[in-house]
Amino acid sequence: MSPRDFEYALAALCRRDGCSDVQVVGRAGDLGADVLARSPDGRG
């Protein structure tokens, strides 16, 4: 699995587990947070 595929898989798991506002941002290898989401209880 490529780093980019991993980010999209992680985003899908976040959505599955009830997160909202899920976004894949940035680029693979930039050493930053590449998936942003809001948890089911509203924390960002």
What are the SSEs and their pairings?
Layout: H1 3-16, E1 20-24, E2 35-38
- Global geometry: flat
Radius of gyration, in angstroms, nearest whole number: 10 Å
Uncertain stretches: none
Largest sheet report: 2 strands, antiparallel
The structural domain count equals 1
Number of strands: 2
Concise overview:
With 44 residues, this protein is of the alpha+beta class. Helices cover 32% and strands 20% of the residues.
Would you give an account of this structure?
The chain is an alpha+beta fold. The protein has one domain (3-38). 32% of the residues lie in helices and 20% in strands. The protein has 1 helix and 2 strands. It has one helix at 3-16, and strands spanning 20-24, 35-38. A two-stranded antiparallel sheet has the order 1-2. It is flat and about 30 Å long. The mean pLDDT is 87.
Give structural attributes.
44 residues, alpha+beta, two-stranded antiparallel sheet, 32% helix, hydrolase activity, EC 3.1.21.-
